[in-house]
Amino acid sequence: MAPGDAGHGGPGAGVSEPAGMEPLVQVFWVPKLGNSEEEYEDACAYSLAARRFAVADGATESSFADRWARSLVQRYTAEPPLMPPARVPLPEWVTPLQHQWHAGVDWEALPWFAEEKARNGAYASLLGVNFIEPEPPAARFSLLNWFRRKPAVIPGLRWQAMAIGDSCLFHVRANQLLKSFPLATAAAFNDRPLLLGSNPARNQSVWGAVQLAEGDCQIGDLFLLVTDALGKWFLQSCEAGGRPWETLLALGTQAEFGAWVNKAREERTLKNDDTTLVLFAWQADAPGAPAPTPPS
Amino acid sequence: MVDPIAGSDGRRKCDSVADAINRLLHNLIIKCARGEGVRNFYEVCVIGYGAQVAPGFSGPLAGRDLVPLSEVANSPARVEERLKQIDDGAGGVISKKVKFPVWFEPLAKGITPMGQALSLAQQILAGWVPQHQKSFPPIVINITDGEATDTGPVPQAEALCNMTTEDGNVLLFNCHISAQEVDPVVFPDTDAVLPDDFARTLFQVSSLLPNTLRDLARSENMNLGPQTRGFAFNADLVELIRFLDIGTRSSNLR
Fold first, then answer.
1. Which of A18, A235, B54, B95 is most buried per CB count within 10 Å?
2. What's the predicted TM-score (pTM) here?
3. Hey, are the CB atoms on A192 and B251 less than 8 Å from each other?
């Protein structure tokens, strides 16, 4: 979706929230300074019903990357690759999107340079996270195992994530960064990530570079999906001993987020790039459940 | 990137210089192309030097100095079709027709007023630099097939590179196309491999590659040391376009 609208999977798109718990979701985005909103090439989508969230970052140096990035996040939230039950392999998963992208280009109408550029294809990072119920126990019931089970506030809810490129997932629990995925340090960012392409001939190096991760989820846990500029800022802040999630949680509106981004760009702590944040915290509506991490 | 066009054996040096300039412009345009258009991340000026020293665009842009890149893209003097040899994917090579836009025609000439050309570049940039202090500094790429026949290039190059934006000094990169049978040299960090005094002089007035360009070269798997200069001998600097930073570029495109 174009963030901020009621597009695919967002509130108002007819999806229902899972009974018993609901994540509080906020989406903020700002285009690169000097570019219009139409030139924004990040994308994000989520489905509360399916508990899937995705962000993608279309590469500046490719054509029609905005459309490519949108198609990736939309398909991810509808049917993610590699995940159960279908476990669709990534090359197979991306093929219809590549056809769709190619068919969406009016090749005849393009001037020579635009055609040559488009022949190279569009490129985007893709970061997706799913929340899944535990698999039914394979072993027979064991009283000992039941006794030893780990207490979980959301019983058994786990997350699984996949990433291609440098969009990042941050998992925060009890005011501590629990997981940074797929990049763990600010130094790991560069301007030449391996990205998922609309040109099938360019993806051979991608298949072996897909990153996977998973973890458990408790009520009050905070998750942030960000594109690279914000990811680098976030990790730099953590490395300096800060709690960047507190800064982001304090931004309640798109306008506040935009003002904060502009200031950080001026101070050169945030790279001037399309910037996207999807932030959500799990909470339960059951009586007595603990509240999500509050904004500071 | 647009690779060197095959079949250039036996061509004049000035044809090779013109090809190098046209391919630089071509690659810069492709780099900045997006959707149906080209983003104006750059303004471009071409100066020809020979019998006269003047803005060198041919066709609709004749006489213009700094031109926004989208206008350059839409205004070549003509678009040729050339044959390019490409890998056929089965161990062989096939010829394929490619578009080769031409903005700059070869200048056959008897003199090489390089100093005057660098001075004209300085005059043009003297108007631009104060108005664009937040920008990456201008890059001047001097492509020559011969030794300067005026007082150039040292004092003029020094004056040119003294201009600065907040991001650093104006960068001067030199590209020497020679008839000598010498292996191509690109981005050297010493002049020890260069065959004559003129090549060494051009190396000495070439800017050190700034960290930003070296970092991007590293992400493109090209390791360049801190003493590397923007210089090429018997080669072009089209590679340089890959190191210019306009935003995320997939490493799949390497």
1. A235
2. 0.79
3. yes
